[in-house]
Amino acid sequence: MKSFALGLRFRDLHRSGTLVLPNAWDAASAAIAAAAGAEAVATTSSGISWSLGVPDGEQLSRADMIDVVARVARSVDVPVSADVEAGYGPVPSDVAATIAAVIDAGAVGANLEDRLRTDDGPLWPIARQCERLAAARDAADRSGVAFVLNARTDVFLAAVGDPADREGMVLERAEAYRRAGADCLFVPGLVDLDAIARLVRASALPLNVMLSPGQSPTIRQLAEAGVRRISAGHAVAGVAYGATGLAMRELLAGRDGALRDGASHGDMQQLMARPAAR
């Protein structure tokens, strides 16, 4: 019942306006996002991978990723969307198993990317990726949860083909992915505001872009362009690890200034006790 209600809420957040979606990498970061006022929380494969000691990019097992998704979902009372990279397996049944596990873990949405990390090419062929998306859609529908399937295409992030052709490639995939059951389209690596506005107008699916501080347009500009969902990706995890590095260097140099602005033990204890108390 809880997942059903959260799924409906998450789906409603995509119907109008612009959803700013913070990305968490563990239970504590998810709880902090929710306490800050996030209407929903997404996981970040990069942040989770780093926290588990491996590089990003399909270096984790399905079980490793689902374990973190479950911890995140238990830590908050807002919808959770899981970054499951390319689905942890090449065939549609692998993807279906991943989506079923994500839903069992308490998530009500997922990103599924079309990056093909082999020598066969940078992206899955459209027909093959549509089979994988359709399997994800079927698994979600069988669960009875109102699940938001966010189809990610890495046309821009992987710099596929001629730059002049990339918008057309994205639109071709957007229509195919819509037919396969996707609810929205995620295009990381896209930072040109004019191109974003054109894709908003032409895409068969609502557009999700990744905020790239210092490179991408501002949140306000993206919202005014009609972007429906903005993800922070690895950015918040990067801030946390950057602050950790600074604090470590300061500590080892005999200074404690960088430690003074951290969350207190008492605040974190109270924050992490909230789900149990509810």
- CA radius of gyration is 19 Å
Averaging pLDDT over every residue, what do you get? 95
Helix tally? 11
What are the low-pLDDT stretches, counting only 5+ consecutive residues below 50? none
Polypeptide structure, described:
The chain is α/β, with parallel strands linked by helices and 278 residues long. The chain has a single domain, classed as TIM Barrel (Alpha-Beta Barrel), CATH 3.20.20. The protein contains eleven helices and eleven strands. The strands form two sheets. Strands 1-11-10-9-8-5-4-3-2 form a nine-stranded parallel sheet. The chain has a two-stranded antiparallel ribbon with strand order 6-7. Strand 6 and strand 7 form a beta hairpin. The relative contact order is 0.13.
Features of the shown structure:
278 residues; globular; TIM Barrel; nine-stranded parallel sheet; alpha/beta; 11 strands
A few lines on this structure:
The protein is 48% helix and 14% strand. It has 278 residues and is of the alpha/beta class. The chain has a 9-stranded parallel sheet. Strands 6-7 form a two-stranded antiparallel sheet.
